[in-house]
Specification:
By secondary structure, the protein is of the alpha/beta class. It is about 40% helix and about 15% strand. The protein contains nine helices and seven strands. The protein has a seven-stranded mixed sheet with strand order 3-2-1-4-5-7-6, sandwiched between helices. Helix 1 packs parallel to helix 2 and helix 1 packs antiparallel against helix 6. The radius of gyration is 17 Å and the shape is globular. The relative contact order is 0.17.
Length: about 250
């Protein structure tokens, strides 16, 4: 069975590598089409350039940007509205356009918490993606955004409770970290064979590493620690958004 095509939708440059870099590399390595939509930062910024390098490492094509500003960094998209302030219908339509153009079998995005940090851009990207994944298949919604296309499944990047103690050792004890009960995790994907690509993609986001964000923390870890902490990627399978009998699974 061929590997399903995969469209990842994340809030910021580096989220794709941190949350699903292994899965993206795995699918690309198997010959599947892969792509990433990033909700914030403009094309002519340093972080967009770093994103392009990371996606090249992961085999995920070129950046697809929704063009909104980061909630905490106005210069991320000068003159553009913040993602969290954008009209929801407008943001959904922009993403629907990418879904209908790329026509993925499955999609991946942040969970309802916005992943471990709960960043407001992550949460809003989750909301936009949940709506767009369904709207893309409805022909009377956004008729000028391309021919309808319904992804067969939507996976939400998450962390189980059991993974948090080890991560807290490197992230720090003072920060709130959001996770889900282990039994709710649908897929725990071993990305060990693609971990080198994943880490290289994370480190391509050099400006984040230099300011001491998570890529910088990862840069200082030993190979064994990187494998222990980042060798598995966890996902929640959203309730099927298609009535088709055949469903495409993100297999472990």
């Amino acid at each position: 069975m061929s590997m399903p095509s995969l469209l990842a939708v994340f809030a910021h440059p580096d989220d794709e590598s941190l949350s699903a870099g292994g899965v993206l590399a795995r699918h690309a390595d198997a010959g599947a089409r892969t792509a990433v939509v990033t909700a914030t930062w403009a094309a002519d910024t340093l972080r967009a350039t770093e994103l392009a390098e990371a996606l090249q490492i992961l085999g995920a094509g070129t950046p697809r940007l929704l063009g909104y500003a980061d909630a905490r960094v106005p210069q991320s998209a000068p003159g553009c509205v913040r993602l969290c302030d954008a009209p929801l219908d407008e943001a959904v339509k922009r993403l629907v356009t990418h879904i209908r153009e790329f026509r993925p079998d499955i999609m991946v995005t942040h969970d309802g918490y916005g992943g471990l940090p709960g960043h407001p851009d992550h949460v809003q990207t989750h909301r936009v993606t949940m709506l767009a994944a369904q709207a893309a298949g409805l022909e009377q919604l956004y008729p000028d955004a391309g021919a309808p296309w319904q992804p067969q499944a939507l996976y939400l990047a998450t962390h189980p409770h059991s993974a948090v103690p080890a991560l807290r050792e490197v992230i720090g004890a003072g920060k709130a970290l959001y996770s889900v009960p282990d039994e709710q995790v649908t897929a725990a994907v071993d990305v060990g064979p693609w971990l080198e690509q994943k880490i290289a993609a994370v480190l391509a986001h050099r400006s984040e590493a230099e300011r001491g964000a998570l890529p910088g923390v990862i840069a200082g870890l030993t190979p064994n620690a990187r494998e222990r902490l980042f060798g598995i990627e966890w996902f929640l399978r959203h309730t099927p958004i298609t009535t088709a009998s055949a469903q495409t699974e993100l297999t472990a």
